[in-house]
Amino acid sequence: MKEPQQSARGAGTVLRALAPPPALCGFLLLLALIFAVSYAVGAAAGPVAPGMHRSGTSGGTDIEDMGDTGGMDMRHGSGH
Fold this sequence. Notes:
By secondary structure, the chain is mainly alpha-helical. 45% of the residues lie in helices and 0% in strands. The protein contains three helices and no strands. The chain has helices spanning 11-18, 22-45, 63-66. The longest helix has 24 residues, at 22-45. It is elongated.
């Protein structure tokens, strides 16, 4: 009788089986490149609205923010 031949797996074959597909590596590299370029463009452009600051962290309503509405909430399209 013939014995079945057992193929010895080389180190290259095992590493190739564990490595991610080349298309995935290329996609991730492209994604990182696009992120880096967009970050560089954003850093070069600077802030969009330099005069814009966050309102206070107190959470209260300032008298200046009330305007002519007397403090009433005038948000349109809220569904109420």
